[in-house]
């Protein structure tokens, strides 16, 4: 096993799982002596290297996991410490200890122009953790259910996925709840009673209500979201983002592009594009443009008005 590992991606839970799997493979059963976890934002490079070079206590092997190592990316991140990158370069170039070191990077991309990134690609093992596809998530759901001898139909699995969206963390947490609730079979009713609807899916439903003129249902949904501590300003920006996605998908579909290409071009999950395609087929381009203009105007009113934002938001839903 390469003793220098870098794991990167936007899915924090899957990165954590991968790091845990690699460290367990190296040290065996992890404990407080053979597995150390540090945060790059709080721990200087000197301390990280010192920990890596310190012999393990009451153990034959040792793994060091370092969280949120932003120096491998182009992101500007506020940190409590100033890191000596030259020292880190020297350590990676001449590593001579037996500690497994795992750098976790919570970003979709590495900055491949940096010396640090080039060096770890040469001397270490780099693993990208991509978002799971719709089919992969469905297989993941069924696999977990089968391990507990629980059945779920394809229709119910689709309903579960629709309520949770394509977020692996949400899917995992809601699946655990569901498995605690049911005995040996999951029904649509079980999913509707137990599984929470993700914010992303609520925003999709809200834009659907707006496009279909279902103002009463839109206001009711927003009131429910605000009771869940969602901020009106954040909800407005999410609606704007969703309308922008619908508009872009409409344009690209008109040029003959397919789902996978559109997802790559817009840098969104293919499942979101799939739902958007299903929705925009029913609307003309000018309708989506009008909604985006009204969203822009409301954004200005939010920032310039002294009126209560919850009231403003409900007015917006009645006007749009």
From TrEMBL:
It comes from the Bacteria. It is an enzyme of class 2 (transferase). Its EC number is 2.7.7.7. It catalyses: DNA(n) + a 2'-deoxyribonucleoside 5'-triphosphate = DNA(n+1) + diphosphate. Coiled coil: none annotated. InterPro entries: DNA_pol3_clamp-load_cplx_C (IPR008921), DNA_pol3_delta-like_C (IPR048466), DNA_pol3_delta_N (IPR010372), DNA_polIII_delta (IPR005790), P-loop_NTPase (IPR027417). Belongs to the DNA polymerase HolA subunit family. This is DNA polymerase III subunit delta. It comes from Corticicoccus populi. The gene is holA.
């Amino acid at each position: 096993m390469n003793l220098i590992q870098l794991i990167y991606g936007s899915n924090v839970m899957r990165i954590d799982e991968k790091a845990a799997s690699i460290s367990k493979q190296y040290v065996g059963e992890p404990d407080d002596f053979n597995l150390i976890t540090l945060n790059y934002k709080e721990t200087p490079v000197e301390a990280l290297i010192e920990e890596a070079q310190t012999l393990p206590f009451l153990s034959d092997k040792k793994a060091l996991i370092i969280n949120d190592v932003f120096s491998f990316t182009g992101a500007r991140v506020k940190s409590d410490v100033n890191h000596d990158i030259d020292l880190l370069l020297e350590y990676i170039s001449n590593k001579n200890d037996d500690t497994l070191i795992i750098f976790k990077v919570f970003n979709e991309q590495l900055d491949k122009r940096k010396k640090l990134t080039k060096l770890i690609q040469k001397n270490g093992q780099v693993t990208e953790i991509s978002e799971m596809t719709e089919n992969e998530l469905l297989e993941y759901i069924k696999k977990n259910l089968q391990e507990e001898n629980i059945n779920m139909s394809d229709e119910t699995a689709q309903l579960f996925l629709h309520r949770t969206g394509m977020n692996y963390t949400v899917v995992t947490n809601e699946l655990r709840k569901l498995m605690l609730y049911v005995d040996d079979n999951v029904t649509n009713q079980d999913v509707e009673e137990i599984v929470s609807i993700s914010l992303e899916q609520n925003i999709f439903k809200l834009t659907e209500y707006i496009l279909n003129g279902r103002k009463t249902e839109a206001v009711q949904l927003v009131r429910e979201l605000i009771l869940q501590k969602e901020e009106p300003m954040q909800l407005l920006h999410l609606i704007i983002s969703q309308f922008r996605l619908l508009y872009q998908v409409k344009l690209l579909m008109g040029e003959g592009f397919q789902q996978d290409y559109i997802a790559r071009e817009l840098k969104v999950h293919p499942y979101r594009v799939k739902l958007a395609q299903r929705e925009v087929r029913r609307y003309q381009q000018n309708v989506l443009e009008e909604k985006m203009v009204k969203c822009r105007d409301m954004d200005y009113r939010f920032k310039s008005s002294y009126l209560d934002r919850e009231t403003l938001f409900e007015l917006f839903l009645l006007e749009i």
